[in-house]
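Minimal example, chain plus S-adenosylmethionine.
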Amino acid sequence: MTTPDAQTKMQFLFALRSRGVTEIPVLEAMEAVDRGLFLRGLFASRAYEDVPLPIACGQTISQPSIVGLMTQALQVSPRDTVLEVGTGSGYQAAILAKLARRVYTIDRHARLVQEARQVFQQLGLANITSLVGDGSFGMPEQAPFDRIIVTAAAEDPPGPLLAQLKTGGIMVVPVGQSDAVQTLIRVRKTETGLEYDELRPVRFVPLLEGLGKDT
Ligand code: SAM
Protein backbone atom coordinates (compact mmCIF):
# COMPACT_ATOMS: atom_id res chain seq x y z
CA MET A 1 0.00 0.00 0.00
CA THR A 2 1.42 3.39 -0.95
CA THR A 3 0.64 6.56 0.97
CA PRO A 4 -1.70 8.82 -1.01
CA ASP A 5 -0.14 11.90 -2.58
CA ALA A 6 -1.19 15.43 -1.64
CA GLN A 7 -3.40 15.83 -4.71
CA THR A 8 -5.30 12.58 -4.02
CA LYS A 9 -5.93 13.70 -0.45
CA MET A 10 -7.05 17.17 -1.57
CA GLN A 11 -9.53 15.67 -4.05
CA PHE A 12 -10.78 13.29 -1.35
CA LEU A 13 -11.39 16.15 1.09
CA PHE A 14 -13.05 18.21 -1.65
CA ALA A 15 -15.42 15.31 -2.45
CA LEU A 16 -16.27 14.94 1.24
CA ARG A 17 -17.03 18.66 1.59
CA SER A 18 -19.16 18.71 -1.56
CA ARG A 19 -21.25 15.86 -0.07
CA GLY A 20 -21.90 17.74 3.16
CA VAL A 21 -19.01 16.73 5.42
CA THR A 22 -18.05 20.22 6.55
CA GLU A 23 -17.05 20.00 10.21
CA ILE A 24 -13.33 20.65 10.55
CA PRO A 25 -12.54 18.08 13.30
CA VAL A 26 -14.27 15.36 11.23
CA LEU A 27 -12.40 16.37 8.06
CA GLU A 28 -9.11 16.46 9.99
CA ALA A 29 -9.73 12.97 11.36
CA MET A 30 -10.53 11.70 7.86
CA GLU A 31 -7.42 13.36 6.49
CA ALA A 32 -5.30 11.74 9.22
CA VAL A 33 -6.54 8.16 8.82
CA ASP A 34 -5.35 6.40 5.64
CA ARG A 35 -8.37 4.42 4.35
CA GLY A 36 -6.00 2.31 2.23
CA LEU A 37 -4.73 0.54 5.37
CA PHE A 38 -8.20 -0.95 5.90
CA LEU A 39 -8.40 -2.48 2.42
CA ARG A 40 -6.68 -5.46 0.83
CA GLY A 41 -5.21 -6.15 -2.60
CA LEU A 42 -6.44 -4.14 -5.55
CA PHE A 43 -9.15 -2.46 -3.51
CA ALA A 44 -6.47 -0.57 -1.56
CA SER A 45 -5.66 1.40 -4.72
CA ARG A 46 -9.29 2.64 -4.77
CA ALA A 47 -9.25 3.78 -1.13
CA TYR A 48 -9.69 7.46 -2.00
CA GLU A 49 -12.75 6.99 -4.19
CA ASP A 50 -16.01 7.90 -2.49
CA VAL A 51 -17.47 4.41 -2.84
CA PRO A 52 -18.11 1.45 -0.53
CA LEU A 53 -15.67 -1.42 -1.23
CA PRO A 54 -15.59 -5.15 -0.42
CA ILE A 55 -13.74 -6.45 2.65
CA ALA A 56 -13.48 -10.02 4.00
CA CYS A 57 -16.49 -12.11 5.13
CA GLY A 58 -18.70 -10.70 2.35
CA GLN A 59 -18.90 -7.31 4.11
CA THR A 60 -18.12 -3.76 3.01
CA ILE A 61 -16.17 -0.72 4.13
CA SER A 62 -18.65 2.15 3.99
CA GLN A 63 -18.51 5.03 1.53
CA PRO A 64 -16.24 7.75 3.05
CA SER A 65 -18.83 10.54 2.71
CA ILE A 66 -21.35 8.39 4.62
CA VAL A 67 -18.71 7.71 7.30
CA GLY A 68 -18.17 11.49 7.53
CA LEU A 69 -21.89 12.33 7.64
CA MET A 70 -22.58 9.69 10.30
CA THR A 71 -19.62 10.89 12.37
CA GLN A 72 -20.86 14.48 12.07
CA ALA A 73 -24.40 13.46 13.06
CA LEU A 74 -23.02 11.74 16.16
CA GLN A 75 -21.63 15.08 17.49
CA VAL A 76 -18.69 13.41 19.23
CA SER A 77 -16.71 15.37 21.80
CA PRO A 78 -13.26 14.53 23.21
CA ARG A 79 -14.72 13.36 26.54
CA ASP A 80 -17.12 10.85 24.95
CA THR A 81 -17.19 7.09 25.18
CA VAL A 82 -18.54 5.70 21.92
CA LEU A 83 -19.88 2.27 21.01
CA GLU A 84 -19.74 1.22 17.36
CA VAL A 85 -21.74 -1.84 16.28
CA GLY A 86 -20.25 -3.24 13.06
CA THR A 87 -16.43 -2.91 13.16
CA GLY A 88 -16.07 -4.18 9.58
CA SER A 89 -12.68 -2.95 8.36
CA GLY A 90 -12.17 -0.74 11.42
CA TYR A 91 -12.10 2.50 9.39
CA GLN A 92 -15.09 4.15 11.09
CA ALA A 93 -13.74 3.19 14.54
CA ALA A 94 -10.36 4.73 13.69
CA ILE A 95 -12.02 8.03 12.70
CA LEU A 96 -14.04 8.00 15.94
CA ALA A 97 -10.89 7.27 17.95
CA LYS A 98 -9.42 10.58 16.74
CA LEU A 99 -12.45 12.45 18.11
CA ALA A 100 -13.52 10.58 21.25
CA ARG A 101 -11.94 9.57 24.55
CA ARG A 102 -12.60 5.86 24.07
CA VAL A 103 -14.19 3.73 21.35
CA TYR A 104 -15.66 0.27 21.84
CA THR A 105 -16.34 -1.59 18.62
CA ILE A 106 -17.95 -4.97 18.09
CA ASP A 107 -18.46 -7.23 15.07
CA ARG A 108 -19.99 -10.69 14.65
CA HIS A 109 -17.03 -11.78 12.46
CA ALA A 110 -13.88 -12.71 14.43
CA ARG A 111 -11.70 -12.38 11.33
CA LEU A 112 -12.75 -8.76 10.76
CA VAL A 113 -12.09 -7.86 14.39
CA GLN A 114 -8.63 -9.48 14.27
CA GLU A 115 -7.67 -7.66 11.06
CA ALA A 116 -8.99 -4.33 12.32
CA ARG A 117 -7.02 -4.73 15.58
CA GLN A 118 -3.79 -5.07 13.61
CA VAL A 119 -4.45 -1.78 11.82
CA PHE A 120 -5.38 -0.02 15.10
CA GLN A 121 -2.02 -1.18 16.49
CA GLN A 122 -0.17 -0.08 13.39
CA LEU A 123 -1.76 3.38 13.74
CA GLY A 124 -1.05 3.54 17.48
CA LEU A 125 -4.76 3.94 18.28
CA ALA A 126 -4.66 2.77 21.88
CA ASN A 127 -8.13 4.09 22.79
CA ILE A 128 -10.06 1.45 20.80
CA THR A 129 -11.30 -1.76 22.40
CA SER A 130 -12.63 -4.32 19.91
CA LEU A 131 -14.71 -7.39 20.64
CA VAL A 132 -16.31 -10.27 18.76
CA GLY A 133 -20.01 -10.67 19.42
CA ASP A 134 -23.57 -9.88 18.44
CA GLY A 135 -23.62 -6.11 18.78
CA SER A 136 -27.43 -5.95 18.83
CA PHE A 137 -27.04 -6.57 22.55
CA GLY A 138 -24.44 -3.81 22.89
CA MET A 139 -21.71 -4.14 25.52
CA PRO A 140 -23.58 -4.11 28.84
CA GLU A 141 -20.36 -4.39 30.86
CA GLN A 142 -19.05 -1.10 29.37
CA ALA A 143 -22.37 0.78 29.29
CA PRO A 144 -23.64 3.45 29.43
CA PHE A 145 -22.29 5.19 26.33
CA ASP A 146 -22.36 8.88 25.37
CA ARG A 147 -22.68 7.96 21.71
CA ILE A 148 -23.67 4.82 19.80
CA ILE A 149 -23.23 4.29 16.07
CA VAL A 150 -24.62 1.28 14.24
CA THR A 151 -23.08 0.62 10.82
CA ALA A 152 -25.48 -2.12 9.71
CA ALA A 153 -29.21 -1.70 9.08
CA ALA A 154 -31.73 -2.71 11.73
CA GLU A 155 -35.51 -2.91 11.29
CA ASP A 156 -35.80 -0.75 14.42
CA PRO A 157 -33.18 0.74 16.75
CA PRO A 158 -32.26 -2.27 18.96
CA GLY A 159 -33.76 -1.97 22.47
CA PRO A 160 -30.58 -3.02 24.32
CA LEU A 161 -28.65 -0.25 22.54
CA LEU A 162 -31.25 2.38 23.47
CA ALA A 163 -31.02 1.14 27.06
CA GLN A 164 -27.21 1.50 27.02
CA LEU A 165 -27.32 5.12 25.82
CA LYS A 166 -26.79 7.78 28.51
CA THR A 167 -29.43 10.44 29.07
CA GLY A 168 -28.25 13.28 26.85
CA GLY A 169 -26.68 10.71 24.52
CA ILE A 170 -27.02 10.31 20.75
CA MET A 171 -27.35 7.19 18.63
CA VAL A 172 -27.06 7.10 14.82
CA VAL A 173 -28.47 4.03 13.09
CA PRO A 174 -29.74 3.07 9.62
CA VAL A 175 -33.26 1.63 9.90
CA GLY A 176 -35.39 -0.25 7.39
CA GLN A 177 -35.59 -3.52 5.51
CA SER A 178 -32.21 -4.87 4.45
CA ASP A 179 -33.21 -5.28 0.79
CA ALA A 180 -34.50 -1.71 0.45
CA VAL A 181 -33.13 1.80 0.80
CA GLN A 182 -33.02 2.51 4.52
CA THR A 183 -33.23 5.75 6.48
CA LEU A 184 -30.40 7.00 8.63
CA ILE A 185 -31.88 8.19 11.88
CA ARG A 186 -30.53 10.02 14.91
CA VAL A 187 -32.00 9.23 18.31
CA ARG A 188 -31.47 11.58 21.25
CA LYS A 189 -32.17 10.31 24.73
CA THR A 190 -33.57 13.10 26.91
CA GLU A 191 -34.88 13.23 30.48
CA THR A 192 -38.38 12.77 29.09
CA GLY A 193 -37.83 10.09 26.43
CA LEU A 194 -36.44 9.52 22.94
CA GLU A 195 -36.42 12.06 20.09
CA TYR A 196 -36.01 10.80 16.53
CA ASP A 197 -34.65 12.71 13.48
CA GLU A 198 -34.64 11.30 9.96
CA LEU A 199 -31.35 12.30 8.33
CA ARG A 200 -31.07 10.78 4.84
CA PRO A 201 -31.58 7.65 2.74
CA VAL A 202 -28.74 5.10 2.98
CA ARG A 203 -27.99 1.52 2.01
CA PHE A 204 -26.25 -0.75 4.52
CA VAL A 205 -25.75 -4.49 4.95
CA PRO A 206 -28.19 -5.91 7.52
CA LEU A 207 -27.64 -6.22 11.23
CA LEU A 208 -27.71 -10.00 11.65
CA GLU A 209 -28.23 -12.19 14.69
CA GLY A 210 -25.51 -14.29 16.30
CA LEU A 211 -21.89 -14.82 15.25
CA GLY A 212 -20.78 -14.90 11.61
CA LYS A 213 -18.92 -17.63 9.74
CA ASP A 214 -15.53 -16.22 8.77
CA THR A 215 -14.67 -16.33 5.06
N1 SAM B 1 -17.98 0.34 10.10
C1 SAM B 1 -17.39 -0.52 9.11
C2 SAM B 1 -16.16 0.05 8.51
O1 SAM B 1 -15.75 1.18 8.88
O2 SAM B 1 -15.54 -0.64 7.69
C3 SAM B 1 -18.37 -0.94 8.05
C4 SAM B 1 -19.37 -1.88 8.58
S1 SAM B 1 -20.11 -2.97 7.45
C5 SAM B 1 -21.05 -1.88 6.46
C6 SAM B 1 -21.29 -3.71 8.54
C7 SAM B 1 -20.67 -4.60 9.59
O3 SAM B 1 -21.69 -4.94 10.53
C8 SAM B 1 -20.16 -5.91 9.02
O4 SAM B 1 -18.80 -6.06 9.32
C9 SAM B 1 -21.00 -6.98 9.75
O5 SAM B 1 -20.27 -8.15 10.07
C10 SAM B 1 -21.40 -6.23 11.00
N2 SAM B 1 -22.61 -6.77 11.66
C11 SAM B 1 -23.79 -7.14 11.14
N3 SAM B 1 -24.62 -7.57 12.11
C12 SAM B 1 -23.93 -7.44 13.29
C13 SAM B 1 -24.24 -7.72 14.65
N4 SAM B 1 -25.42 -8.19 15.04
N5 SAM B 1 -23.30 -7.48 15.57
C14 SAM B 1 -22.07 -7.00 15.22
N6 SAM B 1 -21.72 -6.72 13.95
C15 SAM B 1 -22.64 -6.93 13.00
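The beta strands are 53-54, 60-61, 81-85, 102-107, 128-132, 145-150, 165-175, 182-190, 193-202. Helices lie at 6-18, 24-32, 64-74, 91-99, 110-122, 159-163.
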